[in-house]
Design goal:
There is one protein chain. 37% of the residues lie in helices and 14% in strands. By secondary structure, it is α+β, with helices and mostly antiparallel strands. The protein is globular. Strands 4, 5, 6, 7, 8 and 10 form a 6-stranded mixed sheet that branches. It has a 4-stranded antiparallel sheet with strand order 2-1-3-9. A hairpin with a 2-residue loop joins β7 and β8.
Length: 277
């Protein structure tokens, strides 16, 4: 039995829904039947669907406490290649405040009640009892991992788990997520004329390359998603050839890497703002 599988079974027995992580601290991609969310998604994802895929698909939504699923032959290859284990905090009634640097830790120590802490590569995870909607970038160096998110298992940590304080909940309430753009509204081409990007082959190839860039990201997924959105908009955003179907493809690729719907919307909006669209 591999070490990640042994760890996963132990955590599942304690009530933590688990899933395997591959190199780069990211979930395994969807199987061919579920590629690009063709199956419609699992019932417990934000976009409901009929999928009951037996593979570890759909990122955080694959997390389970069922040892029969964890040990299933369809998960064998994933555990054999796994570089680590993740869990769905919200599924266990927990919230993880992910502090990415020393400045974020200093803020937490001054602002949040003491609770169980787990050292990470760059900072600390602070665990609280209680679930809420996960969100990224709620303040510099701070992400919230809870419902519809996954956190990497790095050990049990030290200290008692405190109740989720209101100050953590308000981190996401202060900045309501803007509505997801249905399409890009852009100025007309200077001097008129046809859009040079409207050929389906050119545009589809560009979107496919952007999806691939997101899917193949091994680290800095947040930054990769933003830079990819920025690149797409800088090329195609000013001529109005992007549609809701194109943005949906990019959002789906990002969410398959563990990004939340809110982070996708924020990254897209920030890219539009950056380009003055």
């Amino acid at each position: 039995m591999s070490e990640p599988l042994h760890t996963a079974l132990s955590l599942a027995a304690d009530g933590l829904p688990v899933l395997p992580l591959r190199a780069g601290k990211v979930p395994f991609g969807n199987c061919p039947a579920c590629a690009k969310n063709a199956c419609g998604g699992r019932p417990n994802m934000k976009t409901p669907g009929p999928c009951t895929c037996p593979h570890p698909c759909h990122g955080w939504a694959a997390a389970t406490t069922n040892p029969g699923v964890i040990n299933a032959p369809t998960w064998t290859r994933a555990w054999r290649e796994a570089a680590g284990v993740a869990y769905h905090p919200g599924g266990a009634g927990l919230t993880v405040v992910d502090l990415d640097n020393a400045e974020a830790i200093t803020w937490a120590r001054a602002s949040l009640p003491a609770t169980r802490t787990v050292p990470t590569t760059r900072g600390e995870h602070w665990l609280y009892q209680g679930a809420m909607q996960g969100a990224n970038g709620v303040r510099p160096g701070v992400d919230i991992k809870s419902t519809m998110a996954y956190a990497r298992w790095l050990g049990p940590g030290t200290g008692l788990v405190a109740a989720l304080p209101d100050i953590v909940r308000t981190l996401t309430a202060k900045q309501p997520a803007p509505a997801r753009p249905a399409a890009v509204t852009v100025p007309v081409l200077a001097g008129g004329g046809a859009c040079p990007h409207r050929t389906p082959t050119y545009l589809d190839r560009g979107i496919a390359m952007a999806e691939q860039r997101i899917t193949e990201a091994r680290e800095a997924v947040h930054a990769t998603v933003y830079r990819t959105f920025l690149a797409v908009l800088s090329t195609h955003g000013r001529c109005g050839c992007l549609t809701d179907a194109h943005t949906a493809r990019l959002f789906t690729a990002a969410q398959a890497k563990g990004e939340s719907a809110r982070h996708c919307t924020d990254a897209w909006t920030n890219a539009l703002t950056k380009l003055g669209l």
